[in-house]
Design brief:
Keywords: Membrane, Transmembrane, Transmembrane helix
Membrane topology: Multi-pass membrane protein
Number of helices: 13
Subcellular location: Membrane
Protein name: DMT family transporter
Number of domains: 1
Strand content: under 5%
Length: 299
């Protein structure tokens, strides 16, 4: 049994919905980024993401029974890496257009390919080499204009933070791959969000902003969007294989481009347009590699 119900149409629809919701979350974070510190944003995003996720777990009758764990240290490592990735991601989106920050997040599966070789002893194949080469080429095309002193130092910092977030996310997901043999999806999601909220709360002594009603509302929405996006992605993977969903990463990048243009008045950069096919081709090769190893395991 693979754990996937063969309803690809529903899975694809949920994957597209998750892209819209993730974009909504980042738009909310970017809208308050000038006034609200990153740690405060992480706290509110995580706190209010717990609401839809707990309701979802209750509907599935996985709360609180599904939170039992036999690997607390594994959860601590996964949650710590995930929380650090969230800090880096929110700091990046404050400095970059939403579309570019989202594109950098697509490096995650490519970093997972490298991590699988270095940490898990997996074979370095043609697919892996091609995925890494294409992703690095796309990264170079996107980042090189930021090296121009006239473009401002914040842009380059944003690129580095975005890449760091993707690297930390890859580490978190590789940890998930190890602990999911004994741990439920409910416990993995719950403890990650809980640790992220506590990490955000720990920044309170460094000073938080006094929120206006509009800022508070946007932070609440960021949490609700983030929690709902996680649920939609989880269900998408339940109804369709990841390799079948991979092509819809292109559609997931349409929403950030529209958000930048319509909400923030930011045009699409030439670097983004050139980097997009290169980086997503790398993601596609990484997905083919995963599919290639999945078939023998199923047999």
């Amino acid at each position: 049994m693979t754990g996937v119900e063969d309803r690809p149409g529903l899975g694809i629809g949920l994957r597209i919905l998750s892209g819209v919701l993730f974009t909504g979350m980042l738009v909310c974070i970017k809208a308050v980024s000038d006034a609200v510190p990153v740690g405060q944003s992480v706290f509110f995003r995580s706190l209010f993401a717990l609401l839809p996720i707990m309701v979802f777990l209750m509907v599935r009758r996985e709360f609180p029974g599904g939170l039992a764990t036999r690997r607390p240290l594994g959860h601590a490592l996964r949650s710590g890496l995930g929380a650090a990735a969230m800090f880096a991601s929110f700091a990046a989106v404050a400095l970059l257009p939403v579309a570019e920050a989202t594109l950098l997040a697509q490096l995650t599966p490519v970093f997972m390919v490298v991590g699988g070789v270095l940490l898990l002893g997996e074979r370095f194949s043609f697919y892996r080499a091609g995925a890494v080469a294409l992703a690095l080429a796309g990264m170079a095309v996107l980042v090189l204009p930021g090296l121009d002193p006239r473009s401002g130092g914040g842009q380059m910092t944003g690129y580095l933070l975005g890449a760091l977030s993707a690297l930390l996310t890859a580490g978190a997901l590789l940890t998930v791959r190890r602990i999911s043999r004994t741990e439920t999806a409910a416990s993995i999601a719950f403890y990650f969000i809980l640790v992220s909220a506590l990490a955000g709360l720990a920044t309170l002594p460094w000073g938080w902003a006094t929120l206006t009603p509009a800022e508070f509302g946007l932070l609440v929405l960021s949490g609700l969007f983030g929690g709902a996006a996680h649920i939609a992605m989880t269900l998408a993977l339940r109804y369709a294989e990841a390799s079948r969903l991979a092509p819809f990463e292109y559609i997931a990048l349409v929403w950030p481009v529209l958000a930048d243009w319509l909400l923030f008045g930011l045009p699409v950069s030439s670097g983004f347009v050139l980097a997009l096919p290169l980086m997503l081709s790398g993601v596609g090769l990484a997905a083919l590699e995963g599919r290639r190893f999945k078939r023998p395991l199923q047999r």
